[in-house]
């Protein structure tokens, strides 16, 4: 692997959001590898090629286990750059509390950035998408019974482009419609994190998506105000800049990584 612009070798770990998988990063991974970077794209539990039933993933610890396992096995002398999209921000925050010394920088892309997860009513207000103006946009499954909270969720196909990909190429939205899988919503809602003693030592960067219909800019701004990152960068994109503005997203991620040295 070659060095870029005088920087040491960089290892990026890309973490997808709800209902997506490692596949959604294919454009960013290609750009990174072409630039000589090392890239790891993980499938969290019940996502991508992981065949776990989302209705049986009831805790965030279980859902996030692939990232936890990866970081646990990372050599103590190696640091990675974590990049999380959407609900992948919860995974990043969990990792920051657990593995601060192994993370060079955490980059949140249109992502949940809540210091302690969904621990308070304000966390829920700021971090949960509000798409109520569109009506019933999601299909829910009740794997534990109709008298229990839902266990999985997926955006209905007719709303996917409007909410997730309105500025993305048609071929990418078509690919996504084939690969999206229900996400373990009960695990997401139970994401709560204790304060790791070294958590504040990890630099955080937030990339705002200005035309986001899913996690609206106002909600992103509220999370930024409540847990201020080192840097805020901006993209003229929809909720999924890995499809709509991949080159610009790659440039901002690279810029953020460079700033961590």
UniProtKB/TrEMBL annotation:
Cited Pfam families: Abhydrolase_6
Domain AB hydrolase-1: 12-251
SUPFAM superfamilies registered for this protein in UniProt: alpha/beta-Hydrolases
Secretion signal, residue range per the UniProt entry: none
InterPro entries: AB_hydrolase_1, AB_hydrolase_fold, MES/HNL
Identification of the protein by name: AB hydrolase-1 domain-containing protein
Organism: Salix suchowensis
